[in-house]
Amino acid sequence: MKIGVIAANGKAGKLITEEAINRGLDVTAIVRNENKTVATQSIIKDIFDLTTEDLTQFDVVVDAFGEIREDKLHLHQDSIQHLSDILSNTNTRLIIIGGAGSLYVDDQLENQLFDTPDFPEVFKPLAKSQGKALVDLRKRDDVRWTFISPAAEFIADGERTGEYILAGEVFTLNDKGESKISYADYAIALVDEATEGNHIQERISVLSK
Q: Which SUPFAM superfamilies match (predicted)?
């Protein structure tokens, strides 16, 4: 299996790249500047300069792009639209690292986590931007996309336990009443989905056991 990881130099991207390589997959880091990952192959391009020809060589493209500057949050929607456009009607899967804020808190899928009273105000712009990107993505029936939301507490330097819970659209807690996952365990879940999963045109979520 050939996998391309966009924004592979980022914290999540590096761990996903490493996880995939450790499983013997053929991994290419897609980065704007120097490749700083363990991948021996790279494409040095800005995400918005990527073409259909660049990406259709891969079975799976992982989008680990993220933006936290408030005046640049629109890049979540813009970048996913660009990737969707260039992968339209191809066999290449697009797996996107999403956010937890757009998860629903009811089985009717009417109320989202970022609209609940306890959701931190400081994270609302980012969460809503990622939520808008997902709304746009759901309109694409021409792209083999999967959107993977992490738990509410997404821990960059957290422990790699090797275990996780796979959930769906509804915000889920583990048996300890927690919603958390390390980047390392998220990487395991994402590579599992890339190699074994079939959640095409679906949003799924993952959390620690």
A: NAD(P)-binding Rossmann-fold domains
Those residues whose C-beta lies under 8 Å from the C-beta of residue 24, and which sit 6 or more positions away, are none
Contact 10/66 with Cβ under 8 angstroms?
Answer: yes
83 phi and psi angles, rounded to 5 deg: -65, -40
Q: How far apart are CA 61 and CA 63, in angstroms?
A: 6
d(CA 157, CA 31) in angstroms, rounded, equals 22
CB 100 within 8 A of CB 150: yes
Q: Which helix (H) or strand (E) element contains residue 21?
A: helix 11-22
pLDDT per residue as tens digits for the range 114-125: 999 999 998 898
